[in-house]
């Protein structure tokens, strides 16, 4: 198959639409559903991400994409009981490494992952399919599917769930093209290998970057490679925990990513873990209620006449002082940036979210100021010398 006709492009008025390949055949087979234009953009960007994560770490990888940027990305490290609970998988028994990877990727920012497109580095197994089964998702791409897992996924969305199988041996041509306003842009593919070699130029007084922190920095950098720029990624424990994408100002990227990382950690606090939801509430409504509860609009779920529809017992207000005290426990977070930090304010904001390790290209005229700020925060920061813009 050299081409596949699509219903429409980004919007229903954009017709005709198709994906095609000039040389050879398309490396994909649609096993179920009718993926659309944006589905394929998410699928192909996401699969590149997880394939690189698997190659760089040796661990199964998963990502949850929305609007051509990852909402979460992770490798298959085991989940502790707290993470199992906040990711809503504590009732599923033993999870495979791939299932852990997707639970992490989906769970990092559940609000953003609602209606995601999933990419998996490995053959989708039953444990992973059982997580996907009950989440609101548009589709999945993987190099293969266990027979039982495929049947589970085919039953989603009344049989219309999008399932794509991709040939893992496919290698794209070294030059890529796209059109804007009828004008063709051409560039060499970004084939730069991201590994521990990029982390060796440590420019701060603190030179210690432990093994797990190096994995987190690699996860952050590979995630950024497929995130709409400007972008910043916070990572911890084998997963992205906060992604700030598509902002014109880098400090806004850092603030957005830091806020998401803070929310990820606040969800692990006793105040949230002890919330007693009514039995009839759905998963998406639970996620929304938690997001409101830990935010400034908490009265939207705690007001009289509202809380009764969500909780069995009215929760106490999660005060700013309590949140600040809990967030002070967040430590050893890794941060990656797709371009240099022009000011020390990015480091200062990252420090408030527990960042200890930083990887960024360097090259700013204020590098000395940024390094000094990192030293003041006792961070270990490396200059990769490489920019990862993605548009």
Which short descriptors sum up this protein?
Cytidine Deaminase, domain 2, Helix Hairpins, 21% strand, alpha/beta, 391 residues, single chain, five-stranded mixed beta sheet, six-stranded mixed beta sheet
Describe the structure.
It contains 14 helices and 15 strands. With 391 residues, it is of the alpha/beta class. The chain folds into 3 domains: 3-171, 3-Layer(aba) Sandwich (Cytidine Deaminase, domain 2); 194-266 and 327-383, AICAR transformylase, duplication domain (Cytidine Deaminase, domain 2); 270-317, Helix Hairpins (Orthogonal Bundle). A hairpin with a 2-residue loop joins strand 11 (231-236) and strand 12.
Topology:
Elements: E1 3-6, E2 17-20, E3 28-32, H1 37-57, E4 61-66, E5 69-75, H2 81-86, H3 97-107, H4 110-113, E6 116-120, H5 126-133, E7 137-142, H6 147-154, E8 162-166, E9 175-180, E10 183-188, H7 211-225, E11 231-236, E12 239-245, H8 250-266, H9 270-273, H10 283-293, H11 299-302, H12 320-327, E13 333-337, H13 345-351, E14 355-360, H14 367-376, E15 380-383
Parallel strand pairs: 6-7, 7-8, 13-14, 14-15
Antiparallel strand pairs: 1-2, 3-8, 4-5, 4-6, 9-10, 11-12, 11-13
